[in-house]
Amino acid sequence: MTEFISVGLTGGIASGKSTVADILRIKGIPVLDADQISRDLVSSGSETLSEIVNEFSDSVLDKSGNLDRGKLGEIIFSNTEQREKLNNIMHPKIQEEQKKWLQKICSEGKSKIAVVEAALMIESGGYKNFDFIVVVKCSEKNQYERIRKRNELSEDSIKARLDSQMAMSKKINYANWVIDNSGDLNSLESQILILIKKIFSMVKL
Questions:
Q1: pLDDT higher for 91 or 145?
Q2: What's the pLDDT at 194?
Q3: 3-state DSSP assignment of residue 184
Q4: Residue 165 to residue 117: CA distance in whole angstroms
Q5: How far apart are CA 144 and CA 133, in angstroms?
């Protein structure tokens, strides 16, 4: 038994991590979105944005001087070396912000559990910073269809995004708990309720 549990929530692209995160929030569990940290870090005029421009040129900026995530995505998803350069800039900063947030939640004492949602938690090694890892999975066919519906991307672009992440079969090996999001919302919610019960059984109430 422990006083506080930090949970890392991850999974493949379009596997349903954000849906799981939203349900956890509804259940009263604090959840931090690593993608929001990333957006904050690269806000206009930020030091991190300057680092990215220095590395990739100002071609990754839009007309207003903000980061054009689409243009940057075209560069990094088609080139492993370029993707690694971006990861080396972003991942340490994102992980530091995650640690600060977890420490804040723990010190406030309002919740025994806190969750960080991050797509590349395992690939970056950030999973090591958490007590408990949850991986959301679904079939690659489901991933493909969900990406196609929410983004106007070519088949090659979708494949590049899927290929840029660790295979789901490998990712689940890092999990303490796996949620299968191949079914409907009721199935997903049922699995989350079981997960919440499991995690709460591990903390001192």
A1: 91
A2: 97
A3: coil
A4: 16
A5: 24
Query: 115 has which bridge partners?
Result: 7, 31
Q: Are 48 and 89 in contact (CB under 8 A)?
A: yes
Tokens of 88: 């080396």
Q: What angle do CA 191, 194, 198 make, to 5 degrees?
A: 135
Q: How many whole angstroms separate alpha carbon 45 and alpha carbon 146?
A: 33
At position 189, the amino acid (one-letter code) is: E
Tell me the three state secondary structure of residue 136.
strand
Helix (H, G, I), strand (E, B) or coil at 51: helix
Stated as kind and residue range, the H or E segment containing 103 is helix 80-108
Residue appearing with tokens 């493909």: 144
Q: Residue 179 carries which DSSP code?
A: E
Q: 15, 175 in Cβ contact below 8 A?
A: no
Report the distance separating Cα 61 and Cα 53, nearest Å.
Answer: 8
Q: Which two tokens stand for residue 131?
A: 């007590």
Residue 42 tokens, joined: 């690269």
pLDDT digits 0-9 by tens, 105-150:
999 999 999 999 999 999 999 999 999 999 999 888 888 788 777 7
Domains of the chain and CATH, by start: 5-35+95-200 (3.40.50.300)
